[in-house]
Amino acid sequence: MTAGPATEMPAAAPGLPPIVEMHELRVSFGGVRAVDGVTLDLGPGEVMGLVGGNGAGKSTLMRVLSGAHPADSGEIKVDGKPATITNPRDAKALGIETIYQTLALADNLDAPANVFLGRELSTAGGLDDSAMESATRKVIGRLNPNFKNFKRPVMLMSGGQRQSVAIARAIQFNAKVLIMDEPTAALGPAETNQVRNLIRQLKEEGIGIFLVSHDIHDVYDLSDRISVMYHGRLVGTVKKEEVDADDILGMIILGKRPEDVTQRDRENIQL
Asked: In this predicted structure, what is the pLDDT of residue 4?
C-alpha cells in the first residue's frame, strides 16, 4: 500500500470553483445514521468515485443530491449558491441528472422517444418527431459516433448502446452534474469499454460526474478523486495519483485512511 495523504479533502479541479458542494449532510432512518456529517464537492469535468461497502451510505447521499430523499440537516450549494433540493425536479432544474443502474428507459420506445420522454417537442399538429430525432442524433453522435440504431426499440440494443441513450437523455437538457449508479454492472468487456469511453467524453465536455460503483478497478481507472464511505461517515477523499487500488480497498474494509492503516491491519485483510 502507498502512503498517500488523506487527512484533508483535496480540492476539486485546480483553479475552477466546484459545481456542487455538500456540507455536513446528515440523514437518519430511525436510530441509524445513514449519512453522518458528510462533506464533498465536485468540479467541472471531474470524475469523483464514490465507493463503500453495502450500507456505507453512498446511495443515500446521492439520493439526497438527486432529490429522491431530503437531508435531515446540512447544506448543498450549486455554482456557489445555496440550493434547495426537495424532489428530482429541483435537481434537474439545477442541472443535476441521475442515471440509475436500471437506466429507467422505456424498452418499447426508440432512442428519440426515450431522450425526450416527458419533455417531448411539439408543433401545432402534434409531436415534432423530426426535431426530436435530429436532436437525438446530434447528442448521441457527440457521445458515440458509431451509434446507428436510432429507430430500434431500446430493448433490442446492447448494454453500451442503452447507456448512450440514458446519458444522452441527461445531457440533452444541459446537465452540469451526472450521478452514475453502477454504470458497468452486468456488462461484458466490450460494453464496459463503451461506457468507459462515454464517461471520458463527458469529462472532456466539462460535465462533473459522481461515479458510484462496487468495481474498484473502474473507479480507480476513471476517477480523478475517490471518496470512501463507511457506516454513514466519510473516511476520506483522496487524489487517485496519491493512492493505489489497495489503499482504496483498505479504506472500504477498515474505515481508515491509508496513513492510519497498521501492518497488522494489512495482514488481517491480506493487502
From this structure: 42
